[in-house]
Design brief:
Methane Monooxygenase Hydroxylase, Chain G, domain 1; 13% strand; 55% helix; seven-stranded mixed beta sheet; alpha+beta; 12 helices; 7 strands
Length: 381
C-alpha cells in the first residue's frame, strides 16, 4: 500500500478517537495494516473511488518509495524531521477530508473553505499552517465564437502548507497538477527547499495559466475586431461582443484578487516560507500584473469595439433611411401627376388634347430622372 494508505481504514480515525500524539498514530497504523493494501501513489484516481489523487514523500528533493500507509509516512517524517509529504486531492467530501484534517492539525475554517470551494483568492495563516486559495483558468477551445460560446472555464486550488506537508485540494474539470509535479521532481534541488517550493511552483503554474488564457482570448478579440470593421461589419452579431465581455469578467474575477495574496507571500515574513523563496514570489507577482494589465486593456478594447459597432449600426440605419426617403421623393412625382389626372372632371387642361398623354409621361420621366441623378450625386442612392 502507498503512503495514501487504505482510505477505508484512514477514515476510521474518528472511531478510534482521532490522532492525539504518537500513540494515536501507531494505533491507527496497526488498524490500517489489517486491510488489503491499495497503491494510491499513481496520478490517477484511487481505485477505491476516493478523492485522493496522489500522495508522495520527498526527502532531500527526491521521491521516496511508497510506505505502508499515510499515517506511518507522516510519523516517520516527524520523527526524523527530514522531508515532507505532498498529498493531492480532488473535490473531497467532508467525511473524506475530516480525518486528514485531524492528522495534520488543520484549522476547521480552512477545512470548510477547502471542501466547499467557491472562495476568493487569499492567503491565511493558522498557527503553523499556511492556507492559500488560487483560482485556476482554462481557455475553452471553440471553432467559432458565438453569442453563447464558453470562452474560459474556472476552477480552484486550495493549498495547506506546513513544516512537513503540502496538501493540495483541486476543484473543477481542469488544472491537473500531474505535469507540475513531474517538472518539480526533475529538479530535486528545488524540491529540497521544502513545502514552500511547492507553493511557489503552484502559484507560478496558476499564473502561467492566466497568461495562456489571456493570449488565447486576445485571438478571439482580434477576430471580433476584424469582423466589426469589415465592409459588412454592421451585420456582425453584437451578442458575440457581449459574450466576450461576460467571459472576460469571469477571467477578471479570477485574476485580479490574487494580487494582494501574492504581495503577502512575497513581502511578509512567514515561518513556512524561507526568505530566499519569497524573492521568487515577487517574480510571480510581476507575471500576474502583466495578466491583469492585459485584462484591463481587453476590457477597454471591447468597449471601443462595441461603441464602434453601435456607431456602424446607426450609420447603416441612416443610410437606409436616406435611400428610402430618396425613392419616396422620386415616386412622389408620378403619384402626384397621375393622381391629378385621375380626377373625374370634364373640364381639365389638355384632357382631350392629342399629345396630352405623351407630354405627361415625358414630364414624369424627366422629373424622376432629375431627382434620381441629384440624389445619386449627393450619395443618397
Amino acid at each position: 500500500m502507498s503512503m495514501a494508505g487504505n482510505l477505508r481504514k484512514v477514515t476510521s480515525l474518528r472511531k478510534v478517537g482521532g490522532l492525539r500524539g504518537v500513540g494515536g498514530l501507531r494505533k491507527v497504523a496497526r488498524l490500517a495494516r489489517r486491510g488489503a493494501r491499495v497503491d494510491l501513489s499513481h496520478p490517477a484516481r484511487s481505485p477505491l473511488g476516493s478523492s485522493v489523487v496522489n500522495c508522495v514523500t520527498y526527502r532531500e528533493g527526491v521521491r521516496q518509495p511508497p510506505g505502508r500507509d499515510l499515517v506511518e509516512s507522516v510519523e516517520r517524517i516527524r520523527k526524523t524531521g527530514d522531508g515532507f509529504v505532498w498529498l493531492g486531492l480532488h473535490e473531497p467530501t467532508e467525511d473524506e477530508f475530516a480525518d486528514i484534517a485531524d492528522l495534520f492539525g488543520l484549522h476547521p475554517l480552512a477545512v470548510e473553505d477547502a471542501v466547499h470551494a467557491h472562495q476568493r483568492p487569499k492567503v491565511e495563516r493558522y498557527d503553523q499552517t499556511l492556507f492559500a486559495v488560487f483560482k485556476t483558468v482554462c481557455y475553452v477551445e471553440h471553432t467559432e465564437l458565438t453569442a453563447t460560446s464558453e470562452v474560459v472555464d474556472t476552477g480552484e486550488i486550495m493549498v495547506f502548507v506546513g513544516r512537513d506537508f503540502v496538501i493540495t485540494v483541486r476543484h473543477g474539470r481542469h488544472g491537473s497538477l500531474g505535469p507540475m509535479r513531474e517538472e518539480l521532481e526533475s529538479s530535486p534541488e528545488q524540491l529540497a527547499q521544502g513545502p514552500a517550493a511547492v507553493l511557489h511552483a503552484l502559484a507560478d503554474h496558476v499564473v502561467d495559466g492566466y497568461l495562456a488564457a489571456t493570449d488565447a482570448v486576445q485571438a478571439d478579440i482580434d477576430q471580433v475586431e476584424t469582423d466589426v470593421f469589415a465592409p459588412d461589419g454592421a451585420r456582425t452579431d453584437p451578442g458575440r461582443i457581449y459574450q466576450l465581455k461576460r467571459e472576460l469578467l469571469e477571467l477578471k474575477r479570477a485574476v485580479v484578487p490574487l494580487g494582494r495574496p501574492l504581495q503577502i507571500l512575497a513581502t511578509q515574513p512567514m515561518r513556512v516560507i524561507a526568505p530566499e523563496i519569497q524573492a521568487y514570489f515577487r517574480d510571480v507577482d510581476d507575471h500576474l500584473k502583466r495578466a491583469t494589465e492585459q485584462i484591463a486593456a481587453f476590457d477597454e478594447l471591447l468597449n471601443s469595439i462595441l461603441q464602434a459597432h453601435l456607431a456602424q449600426v446607426t450609420v447603416a440605419q441612416n443610410e437606409d433611411m436616406r435611400k428610402i426617403t430618396a425613392w419616396a421623393a422620386v415616386i412622389a412625382v408620378p403619384t402626384m401627376v397621375c393622381g391629378m389626372y385621375g380626377m373625374n372632371f370634364d373640364h381639365m387642361p389638355e384632357l382631350h388634347w392629342r399629345f396630352g398623354y405623351p407630354l405627361a409621361m415625358s414630364l414624369i420621366t424627366v422629373a424622376c430622372v432629375a431627382l434620381y441623378r441629384g440624389f445619386r450625386r449627393n450619395g443618397w442612392l
